[in-house]
Design brief:
The complex is a heterodimer.
Chain A: H1 2-7, E1 30-32, E2 38-42, E3 52-53, E4 60-61, E5 66-69, E6 78-79, E7 84-93, E8 99-107, H2 128-137, H3 150-154, E9 164-169, H4 178-185, H5 187-201, E10 205-211, H6 215-225, E11 231-236, H7 245-253, E12 268-272, H8 273-285, E13 291-297, E14 305-310, H9 315-321, E15 329-334, E16 341-343, E17 356-361, H10 362-365, H11 378-382, H12 389-397, H13 401-406, H14 417-421, H15 428-440
Chain B: H1 22-44, H2 46-65, H3 72-77, H4 80-90, H5 98-110, H6 126-137, H7 139-142, E1 145-146, E2 173-174, H8 177-184, H9 190-195, H10 207-219, H11 226-245, H12 253-258, H13 262-269, H14 280-300, H15 307-324
Antiparallel strand pairs in B: 1-2
Helix pairs in contact in B: 1-2, 1-4, 1-10, 2-4, 2-5, 4-5, 4-6, 5-6, 6-15, 10-13, 11-14, 14-15
Classes of the chains: A alpha/beta, B mainly alpha.
Chain lengths: 446, 337
Amino acid sequence: MSLLGSLFQRSFRHGVHPEGHKEATVDLPIQRVPFVQRYVMPMGQHIGVPAKAVVKVGQALRRGQMIAEAGGFMSTALHSPVTGKVVGIGPYRHQDGSFKPAIEIEADPYATQRIEPQPPKDWEAMTMPEFVAEVQQAGIVGMGGAAFPAHVKYSIPDTQHIDDVLVNGAECEPYLTNDHRLMMERPAALIRGTEILLRKLGAKRAIIGVEDNKPDAIEILRRHLGSRSNISVVTLPMKYPQGAEKMLIRAVYDREVPAGQLPRDLGILVNNVGTVVAIADWFDTGMPLIERVVTVSGPGAAYPANLIVPLGTPVREVLRFCGGLKDETREVVMGGPMMGAPTASLDVPVLKGTSGILAFTEAETRTGTEYPCIRCGRCLEACPYFLNPSRFARLARARLFDEMKGFHLMDCVECGSCTFACPSNIPIVQLIRTAKNNLRSRPNEK
Amino acid sequence: MKSNDPHLRLLPAPLLRQGMTTPSAMRDVILALLPAVIAGTWFFGLKALLVLAASIAGAMAVEWAFTPIEKRRNAIGDNSALLTGLLLGMTLPPALPLWMAFVGGMTAIGLGKVIWGGLGTNLFNPALLGRAFLLGTFPIAMTTWSAPGVGFFDLPSSLLALPFQSPVYDAVAAATPLGLMKFEQKGSDFLNLLIGNTGGSLGETSGLLLILGGLYLWWRRDLDWRIPVAIALAAVIFSSALYLADSAKYPGPLFTLFSGGFLLGAIYMATDPVTSPLTPRGAWIFGLGAGLLVVLIRVFGGFPEGMMYAILLMNAATPLIDRYTQPRVFGRGGETK
């Protein structure tokens, strides 16, 4: 089976092979970070419209109580990560450097912080709109990093039907092991959540796609699945960016999602393993999304770890729990090293989309000498979308943004494979982002 | 309140890079060429090394002089002028007057690269452009070959000819295998072609070592294997067809592959990333075209050797090839753009 499997391994075309660097945390069980004094919950932790606060300053809160309701359909609720009280509502430092509206909560040092388990919800009796509203109430978003509100994916128009549920356990970003550990430690919840989605969406079958660098997770999942025939695990060869939705679909089903369309147009729903576990938690125990698994790693982290972190915990407190930063740390990235974002301050909170907190040293963050493009074509062979990154970089330098649009600039998902592959050290994906932002910020254009 | 936080940088992702850089790729090519250079020195003596040095010096001098001061460090450090000088030198006759080699190096970088806007912007392979210039300007000196195997320290008087003086050749000129084939319909011993013990340009003769260097580059992933393979494929098919039609008149495929500058050109010059197509499909078209042209020029043209013009002609076609071979964008049916 494994020999046959390796001969016919399925994957997408192009992409790159960064080193995994996962060995530091891959065998460390998930630990719980103790409660700290102060939490900050930004209203906009997800893609779309920010949530609206429903609490007042001074109000006492239970852990798991809703503190902000969805601000629209493309929005989702927020819940208090601790028992305590609201001490401020206003602008707080966000990880992108700006100040964004947020709720500051002070934990009650004498509270037990225990949530009484709720009876399982009767999700089978719910209509689809009720189910979607429940997921929105629970504040569940895509946990892979983009933080796209999950309920939006479940609101399928009447003209469409989901046949396949694809659970994304690829975790192709180097250093991160949070999904890996989740699959190892909570396989039952993962399968339960998959089952709920399968039944509610009326899908025929589900596939959990896992990269072959996690054989232990694959084995545990297969053991838990037993003789179940509607859910199966598919092993994928290690490659970046396999965890990108459309690439995963290409790898598993050998189908291309047409540009400008969504996976649901092909009858496929893709969810990250963290999202699926959050679904199971909400419907089985009534636990909303108030904490998540975060990998702390990188050469600058004193003691790398996989942690359950209450949302809103300042990055500083998370790092303090695992021994702080080494002196040689030069940069702290929220998310993975390929697509994550650097943070300028350690006082920003962990958000729903924070999959990792990675500390990097001089070796990774030196700005190497940039050489002229020698047209070697490595970026073309890296781009999973078959775009021409070298041309984008050249056009962006000349500020010919409209021309770039003609070459399908907006199809780029900014995975950074081109920049990883470039021998001349050209900041290709950064130039592409500049171009996209410029085009988006123009008036009367989208 | 004093913060003990490290001073955090905000370098945007991706933070990881694969290991290879442009200077290291150039260095790999130079390393791959060294065995053939040593073989050339062995067969043609010290004069080969002097010609190489003159050509490299010319290339570096122009690169240095025409690069803005603040960019000099990088421009010299990226090894590209060194490589161009070396490649040009390897295509020159061993007894070429040194000043001509120097001028050739200057032209290669000056007209072949700097004038276009520096590394990465030129249309034609700089080393071949330099050689084409020399062949047009000094046709006699560029086609006077010396036989291999003379004394190592013998320096012919032509080598040290003063600039702008017609050189006097004191050694008896030897014909190259291609010249013998073209003008006398005589073949050459295959073993000598393989190891390089024939007349010819100082770095092009040792087929075996050039192939070994090419394998090294392929192993280091510095080389687009499609281009040499396509060139060889087209040349073998075309020359086999001719050979089968009239084996007395036309050379066979093996001779085609191992004579003249075929391997040096196919492995090290046609694969210059700057002047070859970006796309894999483009690389096949480029290679097949060059392979076809080289046989066409050698057999039906006026020159015994056609590698240089074959590559230069395909260089000119590269922007066009690139334009029509862009891959289909993911999720976009038949559109190509």
